[in-house]
Design brief:
Blueprint (H helix, E strand, L loop, with lengths): L7 H8 L19 H7 L1 H32 L1 H12 L7 H12 L1 H4 L3 H30 L1 H6 L1 H32 L8 H12 L8 H29 L9 H36 L6 H16 L4 H25 L20
Length: 357
């Protein structure tokens, strides 16, 4: 049963401080438990922090996903002219003539024909491409070990980007099929993305959405391999030519280097992937229902010849260079905002000291 009156010890603590003979002994304050010990004592603390960390990672990947869809959507007018000139090289003589004719015939909205499947398709592809690249780059680097990963870093960039793109194109292909058909049929065969998917599957089945998958792999895998490997190498070369170290430059200057490196990488991407890009446009526009893939490619190549595989290259260089430069600049700007270093080549591993016996 608890006492109703204070104990002697309690009275001493309260009133002894007023006595002139009282000496208060200073007790050292016990240190506050560190964050690590708090996490050990309270597992819920670690769980909350883990959720926050995972949310931050998801936000980072979502930013990359959306920025890829947005940048591709922004250059839809260039993509529209490029696709139509690939299908019919005599349709337009130049970009401005093409936009003028399209604007007069279809209005301003016509210049952005295909923006909806472009946004959805390249947002989905961007999620798998960027996230997959970071995953496979770490996966292959861990398999190789620190020293070999640095020595053969370009090979790791190439292998990681090819692995990520192989998966990403499975998400892109249905939207790419709708986009190309909308842009190469006058008037467009569909009013929007899902209407286009419904029209294709209604006439050709689900396989109709993937009839351009093989040439899409042939276009996108070399494109992505060149995009990641050449960008990392070009940025490393730029900092090699500039005075000082990368860390000596401001964050704004580093994003400028990212844009320049991305634009140069985009030019290389456009060149290596352009013949397959032409074939994707041709197959999605002209492949007959039930026609074998090899037979369709042989028929199209016989019609256009080797030179026809390069129709619209100049437009695509401008488009892909701008796209790639903006993507890397936005990507690195977001990394700076999150407190992460900008992209640009792997740092050499620390040298191991060999102790003499």
């Amino acid at each position: 049963m608890p006492l109703l009156f204070p104990t002697q010890t309690t009275l001493q603590k309260i009133f002894a401080t007023h006595s002139p003979v009282y000496r208060r002994s200073v007790q050292p304050e016990s240190p506050m438990p560190s964050q690590k010990s708090q996490k050990d004592l309270f597992p819920a603390w670690s769980a909350v922090d883990d959720v926050k960390s995972k949310a931050g990672q998801l936000s980072h990947e979502a930013q990359k996903e959306v920025q890829k869809g947005v940048t591709h959507t922004a250059v839809t007018p260039l993509d529209l002219v490029k696709c139509r000139r690939q299908v019919d090289s005599k349709m337009y003589k130049g970009n401005f003539e093409a936009w003028g004719k399209i604007g007069r015939a279809e209005g301003f909205r016509g210049i952005y024909t295909g923006w909806s499947p472009t946004f959805f398709g390249y947002s989905a592809q961007g999620a798998f491409k960027y996230g997959g690249y970071e995953f496979f780059k770490k996966f292959y680097s861990d398999l190789a070990g620190e020293d070999l990963a640095y020595r053969y870093k370009t090979s790791i960039y190439l292998t990681a980007s090819a692995s990520a793109e192989f998966i990403a194109d499975l998400a892109l292909c249905p939207f790419e099929a709708v986009k190309v058909r909308m842009q190469t049929t006058i008037p467009p065969f569909a009013t929007g993305t899902f209407n286009g998917i419904s029209n294709i599957t209604g006439k050709e089945g689900f396989a109709g959405l993937y009839k351009g998958l093989y040439p899409l792999w042939g276009r996108q895998i070399p494109y992505t391999m060149m995009k990641f490997a050449s960008f990392e190498t070009i940025v490393e070369m730029i900092y090699g030519y500039l005075p000082g170290k990368k860390s000596d430059y401001s964050k704004g200057a580093q994003t400028g280097v990212s844009f320049a490196g991305g634009y140069l990488a985009g030019i290389l991407c456009a060149i290596v992937s352009h013949p397959a890009d032409v074939m994707v446009s041709k197959l999605n526009a002209n492949r007959q229902p039930g026609e074998a893939f090899g037979a369709a490619m042989g028929r199209i190549y016989k019609d256009i010849g080797f030179s026809g595989l390069w129709n619209g290259l100049a437009v695509r260089i401008v488009m892909i260079g701008t796209l790639t430069g903006l993507q890397w600049m936005i990507y690195d700007s977001f990394k700076i905002f999150m407190g992460l270093p900008t992209t640009g080549g792997a740092a050499p591993p620390p040298k191991k000291e060999i102790s003499m016996p």
